[in-house]
UniProtKB/TrEMBL annotation:
This is RING-type E3 ubiquitin transferase. It is found in: Endomembrane system. Residues 607-859 form the SWEET-like domain. Residues 1-25 form the signal peptide. It comes from Castilleja foliolosa. The chain crosses the membrane at residues 617-636, 648-665, 718-738, 750-771, 823-845. It catalyses: S-ubiquitinyl-[E2 ubiquitin-conjugating enzyme]-L-cysteine + [acceptor protein]-L-lysine = [E2 ubiquitin-conjugating enzyme]-L-cysteine + N(6)-ubiquitinyl-[acceptor protein]-L-lysine. Its main location: membrane. Residues 33-211, 291-377, 407-593 form the DUF2921 domain.
Amino acid sequence: MPYSSCVYTFLCLFLLIIITTNSSSTPKTTLSYADHCSSFVPESSPVARASPPFVPNLSTSYVTGEDKLFLAVKPENETYYYYVGKSLELLIHSNYYKTIADGVYKVEGSLYIRSPYVYYDNQSDSGSYHRNFSVRERSIRFSLTGFWSENSRKLCMVGSAVDGIKTVDLDAVLKLNFASENPNIYTGVVSGTLESTRSVVNDPGYFDPISIFHFPELSNYSYSLVSEAAKSRSSDLQQDRLCSMSSFVLKMEYVGSRIELLSSCFLALSPIQCPGPEKKLRFMAKLQNSSYDHQGFGYESTLIGEASWDDKNNQLSGVACRLLYPANHSSNHAIGDCTMGLTLKYNSVWTLRNEPKAVGHIWSTKNVNDSGYFGKVNLTSFDHEDLPDLRYVYNDLDRAKKLCPVIKPKEKGSIYPDGHSYDMRFDMSFKSSKGEHIAWGYANPISVGNDLYDRNKKVVAMQSIETESVSGFKEISEPVRNTNIAPTDISYKISISLYKVKLINLFPKLNFSTKVPRRFVITAEGVYSAENGHLCMVGCGKLIMYGMNSTHTSTDCEILVKFKFASLSDKNGLIKGTIESTRNKSDPLRFEDMIIISDAYSFEMAKRSIWRMDFEITMVLIFNTLSCFFIGIQILHVKRNPEVLSRISLIMLVILCLGYMIPLWCLAKQTLFVSSDGWLEANEVVVRVITLVPFLLQIRLVQLVWSSKQSVANEKKSVFILLPMYILGCLIALLLNWARDRKYSLWDDLRSYVGLIIDGFLFPQILLNVFGGSAEKALARCFYVGTSAVRLTPHAYNQYRDYNYPTLDVNGTYYYANPSADFYSMAWDVLIPCGVIVLAVIVFLQQRNGGRWILPQRCLHLLMSE
């Protein structure tokens, strides 16, 4: 009885704690609806449960004023965070009640407000190389009850929430105006507020009013501010193309004086609703002080408008309206005066000195003496490459041909990339004449001949690469010479990101003052010869510098660009070249010569690499299956001859376990980012399973040997010799990693060293045989010969791979003979197999002639005397 009474008491206390916890975390719902919502949606008595009417759920990021709901200062232990954007979501529950008022329903719902920041708790241990983080997304949930009016499209709800951070009850009222059933510019916006019902600012449960906006895409939207678009019979501008053309950032240049509304430097334009057949669209324009469209939403700096496309003039014309704070106006909607005109004209001709841009202006349609009037503001976009009827016009080809001498091919029979191929676009790094790394960048063709370069081409068309079954792989064909090798006119856009510390050395004569150069963009045109891979161009460069709320650009058209492409048959070829200034040394815009280096990774190489990955997965499957067979033979051998268990080196078996465990761990971390089809992903799973099987069999073998060991004296002697050797080798690997230019990380070097230890897995067995002096056949011949063959085969394959396939610096593309998993080079691929064979021969002779057969007579006498 005492026991049962204790259990009963414990259960009562447990239930009391749960009830107390729930009551403290559940918000109180004692707010009066009539006190806060009677003038918005009058309260009405429910009469019956009804089928859910159409009350739209709401999910938006256009929110202001919610900052004080969350901690303004992040906790000290949360040192990592990043901005993910604002988020507010309203979910209406399915339990609706019809009321006595026509079209009015009683509803319940939840309102979620999420913090715009995601925090990370640092959980790293001191001295650890790896840090663990837990992600924390803060949010507040309001439980709300109220009424929805179908006729007025209004929703009013009251309720409470628990902060979750300060555990304070937050009482609130939510008022929303939804878009009307026949919306236009004024009635097509969802707007409202979430306000605290507490009036005392210092009250812990008080929070600032939150304004809510949402701009949904409406199928029955009626354009009322713009006239019918001027149509052209010859126009074939697609709807999605016009939508992308209206999404960019424009620089603002004030002709007159600035006013409070238009005090920003940039206008970020984005479509709300893409055009239909009538080529009209709704847009949002955000006034901001940065060219990057990452600033938060503010209704004071946001414009909403309509625009239409004029095919004849290649122009977008529209009208923009201001937003109003939802609680400060008598009307039901949040659109203010629509007194701003907007025009954008698109320049579709791309030349060396003039890039395609959208230019236009915004102006006030009010009278000069009216409040809020402002003069014309000029608008200019940055480079915009998605314009209708875009074409490139060559203007400086004659200058390019004068500066670029004709170079005859030195090697006959070499095949170079075609001008229209993907191989013409590449990333690159830049070095100064002194060998310092000064920048990185990329080069993309603009046009080849009279055709624009197709930028949608992928590295490899995955579906076009047929991977055969395991029994037979498709033979990779060699590149075919292009019959059209006449010199081709070509233009390029080269974007260079500069290192800050190298700028002074690169532009020694240029005074940067307070502006910081960030990018160097070059437009170039010239001639490419597919006969020898030479590309020579003249270019105009823009040095883009950023200052406080401004962007400055210096243009230089005295630039010479030279590229030399590698042959398609050169598997490790490099694209080399230079970017030179042809100005005088005293000219401020002259820059030091930049040397270009880029890996030439062609389409054919990509196909060969994918074939290689498929082949390597097959190799892993085959050799892991063989390993299972060899370990199984050894297990059968020790079961038939249990007396040999004590003669097997436990250290050797542990080393082999390590050899199977490391690939399992690395496969779990490896991410597959390239594939030919589903065959590769499916076999990656099979690789993990097949790798796990020999690991488990090896563990079983270790268990059998461990349980039979009666004396570990000889094992200890082996450890005394092996441990200093392994530690010394590890220190050497560390020193080499610190002393050289690191191609691999410290972990990769240590992993390679462990791979070398695994290659010499028979060395502990040789030592144990020497100390034991036994001539028993402890290891099955099939086991140690087969395992030795499994360890030396990757080195033979590495030589074949180096000769036939391109070398990648991405470890994730290697499934067999990973360069970071062992020592691979011409020398190591000879030394390691020779060493493995020597160790196997020694074990064979020891099991035939005795374990101490290898020792000289003098050492043998000393060992016998001990």
